[in-house]
Amino acid sequence: MEAKVYSEIFSILKMLGKKYIDNIPEEIKENIINKMDRDYQPVYNISDINRENISEEALSIIVYFNINYWHNDINEDMLIVLNED
To answer: Is the pTM of this model over 0.85?
Structure first.
C-alpha cells in the first residue's frame, strides 16, 4: 500500500476518535503511523467524507476495522455517505 493510503486511514481514525482508535490493536496502529506519508495529511469530517476524497484501499481498511474491531459500531452517517455512488 502507498504511504498516502496510510495517511488517509490515520486521518479517518483521528476523525472517528478515541473510542474507535482504542479498539484497534497497537501493532496495527504503529504500522499505520510508521508507514504513513507525513507530508500528506488529509483532514476529514463526517459531513464531507465521501468516495471521491478517500481511496478505495483506505475505505477497504476502514470497513475491515469496522467488521473486526468495532463490531459495526461505526457512525451510521459515515457509512451512508461512503456507500453512496
So the answer is: no
Grid cell for residue 32:
499505520
* Structural contact between residues 12 and 82, judged by C-beta atoms closer than 8 angstroms: no
- Of 80, 76, 62, nearest to 24 (Cα)? 62
Contact 66, 72 (CB under 8 A): yes
CA-to-CA separations, 79 to 3, 19, 21, 33, in angstroms, rounded: 24, 17, 17, 24
Q: What does residue 45 show for φ and ψ, rounded to 5 degrees?
A: -140, 160
Give the residue carrying C-alpha cell 504500522.
31
pLDDT digits (tens, 9 = 90+) for 34-54: 999 999 999 888 777 777 788
**Residue labelled with grid coordinates 452517517:** 77
